[in-house]
Write a structure and sequence with these properties.
By secondary structure, this protein is an alpha+beta fold. It has one domain. It is 36% helix and 20% strand. The strands form 2 sheets. Strands 3-4-2-1-5-9-8 form a 7-stranded mixed beta sheet. A hairpin with a 2-residue loop joins strand 6 and strand 7. Helix 10 packs across helix 11. The N and C termini lie far apart (40 Å).
């Protein structure tokens, strides 16, 4: 959507103070740990755009709070699996040889939104080391959340998501729905019955680029919106408006536990 279209759809000027008040009314407060998924377009026009939104989030949790965002780089993967869009098969081997290795500072997140990209670019932001499914964090717990991220546990108990779960963190959805709630991948990773496939990525090992193979959990985010709707039938969560956007603040542990039982139940039925 063009900036002009966003301006036309913004009902009134959204001041910094207004947006900060709306975040606090939603329940965001000092000292919280939150993982944020967002759409700047749906928030409406904001002076300063993504830079302003990052500053607002930082102020809302204060220096004692920690902000986390996804910083996934799906392009650092085997090209034979690419579907959106696919590339010619005769290119595959050349792409495997040319993909730059994951770099915590230089690898730009893809499909995470402008707020997440801006947050990732901050000099003080920490980033986990997974070549496809990294997370960024800023605050007192940032080092702990990002310090280890096993290749074969990108969404599991040893990943940043597992740490957020154990820390009783919250997920903040700003203008996006449950389809963006990455924490529900942890619900999938905790299942007894799950499927793995062989994935490949380019990483640095002892100063050299290596094309490595590892087992990756097969996930299905298409079911997340339905899980979210069912979750809200039995759980009260904080909801409200931040700018033009519908926003939700959800305890990760409650959502992941519900998602785990939902997936288990529906798999047993199928």
């Amino acid at each position: 959507m063009s900036e002009n279209s966003v301006i036309k759809q913004t009902l009134h000027y959204q001041s910094y103070e207004q947006l900060l008040t709306e975040l606090k009314t939603l329940g965001v407060h000092e000292g919280m740990t939150i993982i944020v998924h967002s759409s700047l377009t749906r928030l409406g026009w904001v002076a300063g755009g993504e830079t302003t939104m990052v500053k607002l989030l930082q102020e809302s949790v204060s220096r004692s709070g920690t902000i986390v965002m996804p910083a996934q780089t799906p392009g650092n993967s085997d090209p034979s699996m690419w579907e959106n869009p696919p590339i010619p098969e005769e290119w595959w081997d050349k792409v495997r040889a040319d993909i730059p290795p994951f770099d915590e500072k230089a690898s730009i997140p893809r499909g995470m939104g402008r707020i997440a990209e801006c947050f990732c670019a901050l000099q003080e932001t920490k980033r986990s080391s997974h070549p496809m499914h990294s997370f960024t964090a800023l605050g007192p717990k940032a080092e702990w959340i990002t310090e280890s991220h096993p290749l074969e546990d990108s969404f599991g108990p040893q990943s940043p998501l597992g740490k957020l779960y154990n820390d009783n963190a919250f997920v903040l959805l700003l203008g996006v729905g449950y389809g963006n709630a990455t924490c529900l991948h942890l619900s999938e990773a905790l299942q007894e019955q799950k499927t793995w496939y062989k994935q490949h990525s380019a990483i640095w090992i002892e100063g050299k680029r290596k094309w490595v193979s590892y087992d990756q959990l097969s996930v299905d985010s298409d079911i997340f919106p339905t899980i979210g709707l069912d979750f809200e039938k039995s759980h009260h969560i904080q909801q409200g408006m931040v700018g033009n956007a519908h926003a939700r603040l959800i305890p990760i542990k409650e959502l992941v536990d519900f998602g785990f039982e939902w997936i288990k139940h529906h798999r047993e039925k199928s």
